[in-house]
Design goal:
- This protein is of the alpha/beta class.
- The chain has 15 helices and 19 strands.
- The strands form six sheets. A six-stranded mixed β-sheet has the order 4-5-6-11-8-7, sandwiched between helices. It has a five-stranded mixed β-sheet with strand order 16-15-17-18-19, with helices on both faces.
- Helix 7 links the parallel strand 15 and strand 16.
- The radius of gyration is 27 Å and the shape is elongated.
- The model has no long low-confidence stretch (mean pLDDT about 90).
């Protein structure tokens, strides 16, 4: 049976560009429109309906409703507004040149186009993003799309004067609280995003790009060390048990290998990798992506670590007969750890696992020193690499540059 294909949608960048192009066309022609078409960078046309059209003197505004397709995007069905207006004097144009993105004709032809963002569009406060500090978070590809759309209708209308374009999203500030924007130093709203103009449902590449961006920003800020953890359990552990600032951490989800590779390329000197043993035990077996769809070898890897410890300790009885089924058939890592604890070998087995995790993590990070701390809700800290305590202490000083 064929699976239903997930429906793609359009990015906020596409929505902003369509709204801006439509507003410009209505301003320059005087004709009220109900929809507008624009070609996305991916080569797919977006013919989208317009909402809340307002034609008022020297300014026209309208909105496009974001359709994210089958992607669980927080901005799905949100309205993206754009207005286009004439300038009324040289002073106003000069002020816009200082506070807006600007498209200039290098050959001295048409007057420039200016672009800004207001209500619900975030402002950039930290270096490392693709937008300058202090400017609205309208990324480069959406900026190009907006400028190209407005320039197209300006030429069709035979108008060569300057225009100001403004983008806003009434729900932007509230929706931004559900995104990575606050962590990235984008305050007051959402980012206008998109590189292809199309939203692909459940894009792993988009998640990895976000992780890479957060690491890049920390490196740009001069930070020399970083904490990586797979998720919310790890973040809570960093804060409540290690007593460290979560601002030093980056959540890498299941993309362990990719995150470590990106951290290595950014030039961090040391990495603290911490997480629940139920997730990190997979890394001890060389698993780069710990999502369950790539398989579940947790108990087999734990059993292999256990056998290594039993062999080193000269265990006389055959563990294949005595313990194997008890470990492999445990429902959770906590249950298996309880069995190992009862038999007095939990600590060395967790040390063996931490050593293997450290070996793979350092390899994936390009040889950078990676220290490891694993934990569980039942037993607290389980495995800790040799230099982890010293690295935790360094993070505890609050100095990371």
């Amino acid at each position: 049976m064929e699976k239903n294909q997930l429906r793609s949608g359009f990015t906020t960048g596409t929505c902003a560009a369509v709204a801006a192009k439509a507003a410009a066309a209505m301003l320059l022609t005087g004709n009220k429109l109900q929809h507008m078409m624009l070609m996305t960078p991916k080569g797919r046309s977006a013919d989208l309906p317009l909402f809340h059209v307002v034609i008022k003197g020297d300014m026209v505004s309208c909105a496009v409703k974001k359709d994210a397709g089958d992607d669980p995007d927080v901005t799905d069905q949100a309205l993206v507004f754009a207005s286009v207006e004439y300038f009324r004097g040289d002073e106003e144009e000069a002020e816009a040149a200082r506070t807006c993105y600007c498209l200039k004709d290098e050959e001295g032809g048409e007057s420039p186009l200016f672009l800004t963002g207001t209500k619900g569009i975030g402002r950039v406060t930290r270096r490392g993003l693709s937008c300058p500090v202090g400017m609205p978070a309208i990324n480069p590809v959406p900026r190009t799309m907006i400028f190209q759309g407005v320039e197209e209708v300006r030429k069709e209308a035979g108008f060569d004067g300057p225009l100001k374009i403004c983008i806003w999203m009434p729900e932007g500030e509230k929706l931004a609280e559900k995104t990575f924007n606050p962590r990235l130093g984008i305050i007051g709203g959402l980012s206008i995003l998109g590189t292809t103009g199309i939203v692909k449902p459940m894009s792993e590449e988009a998640l990895k790009a976000t992780i890479g961006l957060e690491l890049h920003m920390k490196a740009e800020a001069g930070e020399k060390r970083v904490i990586l953890t797979p998720g919310n359990y790890g973040e809570a552990f960093i804060k409540e048990t290690l007593r460290l600032s979560v601002e030093d951490g980056v959540i890498c989800s299941n993309f362990i290998g990719d995150a470590l590779r990106m951290a290595g390329k950014e030039g961090f000197e040391r990495i603290l990798f911490t997480g629940h043993i139920g997730k990190l035990i997979k890394v001890a077996g060389g698993v780069r992506n710990t999502h369950s769809k790539y398989g579940d070898r947790r108990m087999e890897i734990l059993w292999d670590c256990t056998c290594a410890v039993l062999k080193d300790e000269g265990h006389k009885e055959d563990p294949e007969v005595e313990w194997k089924d008890l470990v492999l058939k445990a429902n959770t890592l906590d249950e298996a750890c309880g069995f190992l604890k009862d038999h007095g070998i939990l600590e060395p087995v967790m040390a063996e696992a931490a050593g293997r995790i450290q070996k793979y993590a350092s390899l994936w990070a390009g040889g950078i020193n990676v220290e490891v701390v694993t934990f569980s809700a039942v037993y607290g800290i389980l495995g800790i690499s040799r230099g982890a305590k010293e690295l935790v202490a360094l993070f505890g000083t609050g100095k990371n540059t």
